[in-house]
Structure formats: structure tokens, C-alpha cells
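Please, structure for the following, as C-alpha cells.
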Amino acid sequence: MTQKELKSILDYDPTTGIFTWRVRRSTMTLAGHKAGYVREDSGRKRIFISIKKKKYSAHKLAFLYMIGNIPKEIDHEDRDSTNNKWSNLREATHQQNCFNRKKRSNNTSGYKGVFFDKKKKR
């Protein structure tokens, strides 16, 4: 999908992160209606939008809409994967994206990314 095709089908409001249909999709989905649905994917809730029988993540479509391409990795600054406001999205490396995760529940050191090696005795 190209940016031009996307803009002919959907509108994106960067201040709210919400996509709306530009065209009537069916008798139930009219132009101006909110696009997308929330689905759990890999343990996280995300917003997906189906276009021509293909599912797209809304945060990827936001990048395509705003800058014309989809980066390899996209990070939600506030870690809320349903918040697709443009100010909350940023292109990131895999390392940057991993660093923005919350502290793991099995963390014993008290610090993100730091763990004790159980094999070494102290």
C-alpha cells in the first residue's frame, strides 16, 4: 500500500491518533466512521485496520500516512500500544524499543535490564 492509496481510503488525526474512513465500506461502515478494532497480539493490545482483506497495525499506518513509509520498528513512547497519537510514536531500533519496556515481573535486582547470574555464587 502506498501513502496515496491510504490517504484515499482513510483520514488520520495526528492529535488523537484515530483513523476514520473517507469512503463508505458497507451498509454498517459509513464515511466518517472510526476505523479499526482492538486485538491482542503477542500479549499486547493493538489497533488493527483491515483494508482489502489485509490487516494492518494502526501505528504502522500512521507512519505511512504521515511520512510515506513504514520503519522497521516503531516505539510507543508511553508504552500504550493503543495510543497512536503522532507525538507518541517514534522510529526506533530494536534495542531502543526493548529499552522502553517496563521492568519485568521476575526482576530481582530492582533495575531494568540488570539480573543476577544464578550460576555464579557470591
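The radius of gyration is 18 Å. The longest strand covers residues 44-51.
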